[in-house]
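We close this part of the discussion by returning to an individual protein. The amino acid sequence and the backbone structure tokens for this protein are reproduced below:
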Amino acid sequence: MVTPTRRAQRRAQLTAGRFGQFTRTKQVGEGIDFDWPCTNSGDGEGVAFIKVREPAIGLVWDGAPFPIPVGQTVTPNLHQTIDLPLGLRSMIPELYEGLPPNGIRLIASDTLALTVVSNPVLATVGNPKINNLDGPTFFEVKAGTVISLSWPCQNSGGGAGRARLRDGGSGVSFLGPLITISGFSTVVLLGSYISGSAGKFWNRTLTMEDDKGTILSTWVYSFKTI
């Protein structure tokens, strides 16, 4: 009597595609994504995940496991918020078969030179409000009353920056104090001045500038005093 042979066990056969991220510059507090295509050319479903190491400081990031179906290419992802010392970091991304943290097999390894910086990146948000109007180019106002100014400033960088409002033209000029905007935050810069005598047209330019005098944006407007 011939004993039937045991059916061969189905197995995944995982291979890595091109990693393709070799140098990056990121702000402290910014996110970074690692993506690595993985192809399963076997006859069983597989699982893969990304691990990232930084040997100098003992850092380890483990990504989530991604199922890799038979005959398909899936791109596992690892997303992480940067909270590392400033400067050049030598990162080692690795693609593993199996489940975190150790997996069952290292599929591929590569390197990434990550430069971590902490610089302010300042920009105006939307239009300014002048005399409680959203982005006016012309309005009328009573003579001798207060003209209010406000304009949000966003810092999308990791380091704190400083900015202020400047308003000039015909009539009284305004120069606001430098206001600190911490990393990844938005602050509304404020100012005001007194409108001039009645029966005149006043041409003005509102400017937002940083602490180095770099102009972030300008808004040209005029008003008539009545």
Q: What stands out?
A: The chain has two domains: 14-117, 122-225.
